[in-house]
Amino acid sequence: MFCCVFAALCYHVLTMFQIVARQVLVRACLSRPQRAIWAAMVASSESKRHRFVVRVRPPQRRVKVPEAKDVVLGPRPVAPPTEVAAKLRASPLVIGVDIETHDLLGRHMKWWTGPLGFATLADPFTIQEARIVQIGWCVHAAGEEPIVKRFTVCPTDFHISEAAAAIHGIAQEEATRQGTYLHEVLTAFMRDVSEVHALGGRLVAHHLEFDAGIVMEELARAGLSHLQQSWQEFARGGVCTMDPEIAHWTREMLSMEQVPWKSALKLEVMCSKLLPDCEGLLSKKHSAGADAQLVTMLFHELSRRAVEAPGAHANADSSA
Description:
Elements: H1 2-29, H2 32-48, H3 82-87, E1 93-101, E2 107-113, E3 119-122, H4 124-129, E4 132-141, E5 147-152, H5 162-168, H6 172-178, H7 182-198, E6 202-205, H8 208-221, H9 228-236, E7 239-240, H10 244-253, H11 267-274, H12 279-282, H13 288-308, H14 312-319
Parallel strand pairs: 1-6, 6-7
Antiparallel strand pairs: 1-4, 2-3, 4-5
Helix pairs in contact: 8-9, 11-13
């Protein structure tokens, strides 16, 4: 800006100097009639001279163009693969379950299929040794209000680690003071499970092999071994929303960048993209009751999209 102003000033000074020099030369070399003719010519040319104007362009804002991998569109109808459609077969009634444990989850090096038939990354020894600190379940019929229950277990024979307490917010002292005995908690849980099973409902969990496997072990510890067989049968007919194949199909619906096939999606990611009115429940992350309700809502939404997607019926007919 300063350079432009300085250039304009120099231009005007040089112009005035030329005018004065011409007038001196004219007076010195021309006669009076000739000077009059020269003055008229100069006046005419000056009236036609264009004025020098300095135009300053405003600075332009640089707009960052997002990369393709960062662009996520809204859900679009995509027909699920035959295997995914079979897993998400419609079930008007489901019971969702979620568990918070006494210590952090030991992670397996790669995906493997657990005893209940679901893909998992949980270390098998962790499933055997994990203890329930909090369990929540949600009985949810499509189109109706969910029934949510949540219990904190009194840690009579185990200790809650500080690392686990930092995640779910349940410390040893609080659980000891406010918790319910494991036998009473699992008795109430299995009563609701039996009712849902009798009505043809299904079990839903985000990492079902982990949650259901821990319940299996805790039933024995609580003196409820006679319920293990019925629990195992019910769990094997359930659906895991953390299934890598379901995650792959969900990424296609959301136009997300695909990753290696054996990769899951977090519960909060799936719910935030597919369930528009779940902010309140998402704010209660790692509360077993809220997570159990979210997983039932997610299942109903995934099942609906699997049925309504173009070509879904054709896939179902071909699989039949």
